[in-house]
Write a structure and sequence with these properties.
The complex is a heterodimer. Chain A is an all-alpha fold. Chain A folds into three domains: 4-57, no CATH class; 86-138 and 257-302, no CATH class; 141-157 and 170-189 and 202-245, no CATH class. Helices cover 44% and strands 0% of the residues of chain A. Chain A has helices at residues 10-21, 26-38, 40-57, 72-80, 84-118, 122-128, 132-137, 264-271, 278-301. By secondary structure, chain B is mostly helical. Chain B is 64% helix and 0% strand. Chain B has eight helices and no strands. In chain B, helix 2 runs antiparallel to helix 3 (40-57), helix 2 (15-37) crosses helix 6 (138-149) and helix 3 (40-57) crosses helix 4 (66-87). The longest helix of chain B has 23 residues, at 15-37. Classes of the chains: A mainly alpha, B mainly alpha. Chains A and B meet through helix 1, helix 3 and helix 4 of A and helix 2, helix 3, helix 5, helix 6 and helix 8 of B.
Chain lengths: 302, 202
């Protein structure tokens, strides 16, 4: 039986085969023959290999069991036969590549646009533009146009020119802030009798020009009082019909649009809209899978 | 008509010229396939695939030995067929004879007294070699078949298996060593004159 000692080193084994097959150069051959002459082991191995090679070469040649030539029909069929396996394989590969491209581009797009999206007017919009629910809670501040001002002049300047007293008293006041009390000056200030000098009215306070009337005398004076706290104020909107008061006639952006992004998802979606629809992605993925499956089937059926 | 003329005609689409080339080399092709595959049916399939593949690739032939080029295609077809067989193994657990019947003791396993007939002795050796050859790893078997059975030189084998010359030398040396080891195991079964006697040189 074989023993480990019979196993030639790899280098000697290769050299022996090369010598046996005559593929050594002249110099290599001379060197090997010198070694061969000295080594019984190499001589034994050479003898064995020569015998082995002869034995293998002596194996009978197996003739072809049939004619392998091609008929014209076979050739026609070969030309017609579509090369399905490579075609499906390439198609599947193309679908996968497109899908990878889509995901990569979306990833890059989102990565570089994310910082901008965080600085996007989301917070600003949320703080600046109240949501519709909040907007309902906050009482609408009507746009109020005031005229006259707190320090308006006018009113009941009652000047009488008496015969004896040419001096006239010029009444001041009348203008009051609307938020408190609107006092209309009817001009029914008691006319100064001729020859009388009316007492000068203090002008430090608005409305002070009017004679203070006790509460019980209030009905006698035509005072229009519209306290804000007790009843809703009918805003005085300049140029708007009374029937339209309190209604939103027009707004910008349009009222149908959201006043502000309500959720983070909405914000993200608006900031980073999908480049390719999900349907297309799923379609690509399904195509790649089906085509690869077909390619595999045709490959195995070959 | 020379081989070169046949090749040129075949490349231009002449099916008759192509078939004459096939007839010229089909025995060598089948024999190589058979020694690589160790199965006549699989070898026939591989040879037919090789012929079809050769027809498709005729326009890629760039000169040189046509036989070597054809054997390269045959070898590749054998590799494909071996892979296919590995995917779907259908080798019976028991060896079969030519009629497809199961054989309990194939010839290489028989331990009966050696047949005195010289032909029978040669058959014993042939069976042992075939068995040892089939037992070799695929990469070693292919090189040994191409060099020792098909008679290709190292350079052609290097082109056929698409490996450097050093790899061919190395694989062939390993293949022969393994064959030698394997045949030593059949020492008692082989005829006297084929036995490798270690004691002769020790």
């Amino acid at each position: 039986m074989n023993s480990r000692q019979d196993t030639l080193p790899k280098r000697d084994n290769e050299a022996l085969c090369a010598y046996l097959d005559g593929v050594m150069t002249g110099e290599e051959r001379q060197k090997f023959e010198k070694r061969l002459a000295k080594s019984l082991r190499l001589q034994k191995a050479l003898k064995e290999y020569t015998q082995l090679r002869l034995s293998v070469r002596s194996l009978p040649c197996q003739p072809a069991p049939r004619n392998f030539s091609l008929t014209r029909e076979e050739v026609r069929a070969l030309k017609r036969q579509p090369v399905l396996y490579p075609a499906f394989g390439f198609a599947s590969l193309a679908a996968v590549l497109i899908l990878a491209l889509v995901f990569t581009s979306e990833f890059i797009f989102k990565t570089y646009s994310a910082p901008m999206a965080s600085e996007s007017p989301t917070e600003l919009a949320l703080s600046a533009a109240p949501s519709q629910e909040n907007a309902r809670d906050v009482p609408e501040q009507p746009q109020i146009f005031t005229w006259g001002g707190a320090y308006g002049m006018g009113g009941g300047g009652a000047g009488g020119i008496g015969g004896d007293a040419p001096a006239a008293a010029y009444g001041m006041g009348g203008g009051l802030s609307v938020g408190t009390t609107i006092v209309g000056n009817t001009g029914e200030v008691p006319a100064a009798k001729p020859g009388e000098i009316t007492a000068p009215l203090p002008s430090e306070e608005a409305g002070a020009g009017l004679p203070e009337t006790p509460e019980e005398e209030a009905p006698q004076a035509q005072v229009f009082s519209t306290p804000m706290s007790s009843e809703p104020v009918e805003p005085l909107i300049f140029g708007i019909r009374e029937s339209e008061a309190g209604q939103i006639i027009a707004s910008y952006p349009p009222a149908e649009a959201k006043t502000a992004p309500e959720t983070a998802a909405d914000t993200q979606t608006e900031a980073n809209p999908a480049l390719v629809s999900d349907v297309l992605k799923i379609g690509l993925l399904a195509s790649a899978f089906v085509l690869a499956l077909l390619a595999l089937v045709f490959y195995l059926k070959r | 008509m020379s081989e070169q003329d046949l090749i040129e005609l075949a490349v231009s689409g002449d099916l008759d010229a192509f078939n004459r080339l096939v007839l010229q080399y089909q025995d060598a092709a089948f024999n190589t396939a058979y020694r690589i595959m160790s199965d006549p049916a699989a070898a026939a399939d591989a040879t037919q695939e090789a012929v079809i593949s050769m027809y498709r690739k005729l326009n890629t032939y760039r000169g040189g030995s046509f036989k070597s080029w054809f054997l390269r295609i045959v070898t590749n077809a054998c590799y494909d067929e071996l892979r296919r067989i590995k995917r779907r193994p259908s080798v019976p657990l028991e060896p079969e004879n030519d009629e497809g019947e199961l054989v309990d003791s194939p010839s290489w396993m028989e331990d009966d007294a050696p047949d005195p007939d010289e032909a029978a002795s040669a058959r014993e050796l042939e069976s042992a070699i075939e068995h040892c050859l089939a037992d070799l790893e695929e990469k070693f078997r292919v090189v040994m078949v191409l060099v020792d059975i098909s008679g290709e030189d190292y350079e052609s084998v290097s082109a056929i298996i698409n490996r450097p010359m050093g790899t061919v030398k190395s694989r062939l040396a390993r293949a022969r060593q393994k064959m030698q080891d394997c045949l030593r195991g059949f020492g008692e079964l082989l005829p006297e004159k084929f036995r490798l006697k270690d004691e002769e040189t020790e």
